[in-house]
Amino acid sequence: MVSGKYSALSGAVAREQAMGNLASNLANVNTTGFKRDRISFASILRGTKQTTEARGINYSRINKIGTDFNQGGMQPTGRPLDVAIDGPGFFKVQKNNQILYTRVGHLMLDANGLVKTEDGLNVLGSGDAPITIDTSAGKDIVIAESGEISVNGVLADVKIQVFAINDQDKLTKAGQSTYKLEAGAADQPLENYRVLQGNLEGSNVNMMEEMATMIATQRSFEAHNKVIESYSKLGERLDELGSIG
Question: pLDDT by residue (tens digit) across 55-102?
């Protein structure tokens, strides 16, 4: 009986953690470039341990929280320095000495012509060199789908570069819709990609889907709690019977 109670408890804890993840996704439904997190569950004991140590009772836990990198919808802004990646890949940015990756292309120029994110991170091009746009001859900036930059009709010698990651499972969230790359993975510049000027990529959170999942998870959590309560009441009755005997 105790094993069954702990099985229900492990299930309730896992569903409570899942609710927190769903709440985070829903809170970022309107966050530019946000990528939702997906949860997978697993048994704590499997195979022969499931039938021997756990006596066939399933103890569940969160197996993995992974990021869903599917593309979000395009949001036209009309702003020349807003760019969105149409397809796979990331912009490469630098925070102090740390390399990060993002799909948020809300860019701006500082006083020296350096291209930065809205959080002040340098945007890097090929060779990890910071991208600089010379606007001394004008400020009419056009960014082609290939990433090439023109100022007042003159092609600049820099471009917006998009990078591919060979193992996206190695990307972990670093805040503000940026990601850091763990050891064992690498990036490489894409040769063929498409960026859309005057657009930003929206969140890939589907509100209706997340709400439906949240309702199902809440019901599962309540069911596990009812099982725990039933085991507690049964334990009380057994204690009473034992004292009578």
Answer: 545 556 666 778 999 999 999 999 999 999 999 999 999 999 899 999
What tens digit of pLDDT does each residue of 177-194 get?
999 999 889 999 999 999
- Burial of 30 per CB tally in 10 Å (0-12, 13-18, 19+): exposed
Q: Are 113 and 61 found together in one domain?
A: no
Q: On the CB side of 154, how many CA atoms lie within 13 Å of its CA?
A: 11
Same domain, 86 and 186: yes
Structure tokens at 139: 């400020």
What is the total count of domains within the chain? 2
Pairing state between β 83-85 and 74-76? unpaired
Residues 6+ apart with CB under 8 A from 113: 132, 133, 134, 135
State which residues form the domain around 153. Answer: 74-201
Helix (H, G, I), strand (E, B) or coil at 181: strand
Question: Are 81 and 197 part of one and the same domain?
Answer: yes
Q: How much is the CA Rg of the chain, to the nearest whole Å?
A: 25
